[in-house]
Specification:
The chain contains 1 helix and 8 strands, in the order H-E-E-E-E-E-E-E-E.
């Protein structure tokens, strides 16, 4: 008669379960297919990078505010805008700055090209949000900074 033993094999002698092997093979196939598809279909080219630049918005003693481009980064130009403003200012190089001023309900008529005029019926002073947006070489736009400033009426 033959002797039968019910010994457990050592951990080193056990094989990997066929189910786990199949799951690993499917996972590797899916990952490879996704990588190849992204290159073939050009998904990598459609990702836009954010525009980076340095800008500072500061409040002045005379009741106005100034936005200054302080480092270029990847931006080709910066756009300065404010709430209730009649337009915006484009800064074209590092060191350029724009003035943000408030003229009550009557817009300023003698403002220069680097001035953002805020017009609102807010009394002697108004708090507005100034936004500086970086514009990249391919037209991509990213908000660089947003600051709330308090402006005094310059028409008085």
């Amino acid at each position: 008669m033959k002797k039968i033993t019910l010994e457990m094999p050592d951990r080193d002698e056990r094989g990997v379960s066929p189910v786990i092997g199949v799951i690993l093979m499917v996972a590797i196939t899916v990952i490879l297919a996704a990588v190849i598809a992204s290159f073939v279909l050009g998904f990598g080219d459609s990702v836009n990078e954010t525009v980076q630049a340095g800008a500072d918005v500061s409040q002045n003693d005379d009741g106005t505010a100034t936005a200054t481009w302080i480092s270029e980064g990847t931006a080709s130009e910066l756009e300065v805008s404010a709430e209730n403003a009649d337009g915006n200012v484009t800064l074209e190089q590092v060191g350029d700055s724009a003035t943000i001023q408030y003229y009550g309900p009557d817009p300023a008529t003698d403002a220069d090209a680097n001035t953002v005029n805020v017009t609102a019926d807010g009394g002697n002073e108004i708090t507005v949000q100034v936004t500086v947006t970086g514009i990249g070489g391919e037209g991509t736009r990213t908000v660089i900074t947003q600051e709330e400033v308090t402006l005094e009426d310059q028409s008085a």
